[in-house]
Every structure is written in structure tokens, then in C-alpha cells.
């Protein structure tokens, strides 16, 4: 088959000599294919270049959003820590009042509304940590060891009297009412103790020692760790006593303290 050619003529303006070139149709075909490929490659390059430019343009916005997300994440972590603290507090409150809620809800309301523990506390001592605000873990642990909550829901029937040798306070309460550890520590004694009857002694590891006497029963034992708010026994009338009540003492560095100056009512 005879090949086909295209004739290309070049006519200069300043010359009468005409130049002619023969070009095979195959070269025209190759040229068309190359042009199509070039256009496709150029289009892909332009598309990717535009995409990269958009990413670069949005980098600053992404950086700002990322910084905001990091800040929010820190805020969420702080909120979760606070929620955990509130959950622990809620558990302790439920632990303290669950006996009354399950058995007789009116009983606790009448005690709180009518009596409010039937006394006004003495002037408070200045304790190392008052527990206000959000503390570090080390500070929280230190606060947990301070015996500053009521050991039983009841009425103070006898106050601290150092001169009269009553080195604690008595809470009058119904027999069987739960008795709570007023601070985190370790049980150093749990058993009968002469005229004091069933007694629990807790060492809080910071110079404080608390005792709980005349208990009906003991729900812990020597060497056991206890946390603030844990039920450790129940109100009774064991030992030498005129009726069911809790005899509660606080000792700081070997010196008896007035518990009313520590309790946060």
C-alpha cells in the first residue's frame, strides 16, 4: 500500500525560493497522540497543584482548630476529674444515709430538721487543709486523713471536758445506727476495751488517732485500711454506760482534742 504524505510549503517574504517538505501521515498521527497525552498530563498537574494550594491555604485554619481542640480536651479532662470527685462524694453521702433511706426516710429528715445535732459547735481549730477548691492528689490524700466528719447521725449528749476527764464527746443515737470512720487510716485496735466496751481505734498516719466506743458490733479488724466515710460498726451500749450512744475521741500527737472543733457540720 502506498504511503500518504502531506506537503508543507514555506514561502519566505524576501525570497522567491519556495521550500517544500513532505511529512508522512504517521507523524501527524503521533503528533495528535502526543498532544492528547500532554493535555491530560498538564490537566492532572494543574488539578493536583490546585489541590495542594487549597491544603496549604487551609493549614493555618487547621492549626487554629487543632489548638482549640487541644484546649477543649484539657477542659474535658479537668471536668471529668471534677465529676469523679463529685461521684466519690455522692457515694460517701449515699453510704452515710443509705440505712435511713432504705428503712425509714422520715427518720433522718426529722433528726436533721428538728435538732441539727442539737448544739452549736465550738470555735474551729485551724487545720492544715480545709478542703476548699480543687486540690492535687497529694493534698486530697492529706485531707482524707483529717478526721473532720461526724462519726454518726445523732445528738451530742455530752461535750468534751478536759477538766472533768471526759476527753471526747458522746453522740446519743438509736442502737444499730451506723458508725463511720471520720478519716482515712489504719485500724490499730478493734475489740473490747474495759468500761469502753467494743472499741475501734484508727491511726490516720498524720499524728491523728480517733476512737469509737460502746459499739454494738464491729465491722472491721486490726490492720485493716479504712477510708473516710466507711461504716466500721454500729451504735450500742457495751461496756459501762447508761444507754446506747457513741463515745468519740480525737487525739493529736498524743494530746486529746475537742472533736467539735474538727467536725465540719
Report the sheet-strand fraction: 15-25%
CATH superfamily of the largest domain: Glucose Permease (Domain IIA)
Mean pLDDT: 79
Number of DSSP strands?
A: 12
Order of helices and strands: EEHHHEEEEEEEEEE
| DSSP helical segment count | 3
What is the general shape?
rod-shaped
The CATH architecture classification of the largest domain is Distorted Sandwich
Uncertain regions: pLDDT < 50 for 5+ in a row? 99-103, 111-132
CATH topology of the largest domain: Glucose Permease (Domain IIA)
Structural class: alpha+beta
Describe this structure as you would to a colleague:
This protein has two domains: 5-60; 106-261, Distorted Sandwich (Glucose Permease (Domain IIA)), CATH 2.70.70.10. 37% of the residues lie in helices and 25% in strands. The chain has helices at 25-103, 105-115, 137-144, and strands at 5-10, 19-24, 155-158, 169-172, 178-180, 185-192, 198-203, 208-218, 225-226, 231-235, 245-252, 255-257. By secondary structure, the protein is of the alpha+beta class. It contains three helices and twelve strands. Strands 3, 4, 5, 6, 7, 8, 9, 10, 11 and 12 form a ten-stranded antiparallel β-sheet that branches.
Strand and helix map with partners:
Layout: E1 5-10, E2 19-24, H1 25-103, H2 105-115, H3 137-144, E3 155-158, E4 169-172, E5 178-180, E6 185-192, E7 198-203, E8 208-218, E9 225-226, E10 231-235, E11 245-252, E12 255-257
